[in-house]
Amino acid sequence: MNDNDMEATDKKVNEVANDNLDALEDSLKHMESEEIKKQIDDMLDDCLDDKKVLIRIAKILINKSRESFEDE
After folding, report:
1. Which residue, 9, 17, 24, 25, shows the most beta carbons closer than 10 Å to its own?
2. Over 70: is that where the pLDDT of 72 sits?
């Protein structure tokens, strides 16, 4: 396989992955909470080695928790 073939394959894989994420995003409103949690768990498993991503996710959850305290 030459470089052009690999680049074309990588591009196609990325397109399919983005299409799958778009479909997931579009279907979130129609999913049950447990299925959404499963999808989140799967995505977290995929990024466990990326500390920057985990920090961003943690900050989102921290801010959400703070909001819940303000609502009370």
Report:
1. 24
2. no
pLDDT tens-digit map of 22-48: 999 999 999 999 999 999 999 888 888
Which residue from 65, 63, 60 is spatially nearest to 44, judged by alpha carbons? 60
Token pair of 69, please?
A: 């305290």
Q: Token pair for residue 28? A: 């979130």
Q: How far apart are CA 12 and CA 18, in angstroms?
A: 10
| Token duo for residue 58 | 């943690």
Does the pTM exceed 0.85? no
Task: Quickly count: other Cβ atoms within 10 Å of residue 22's Cβ.
Answer: 10
Q: How far, in Å, CA of 29 to CA of 47, rounded? A: 24
Find all residues with CB under 8 Å of 39, minimum gap 6, and list them.
24, 31
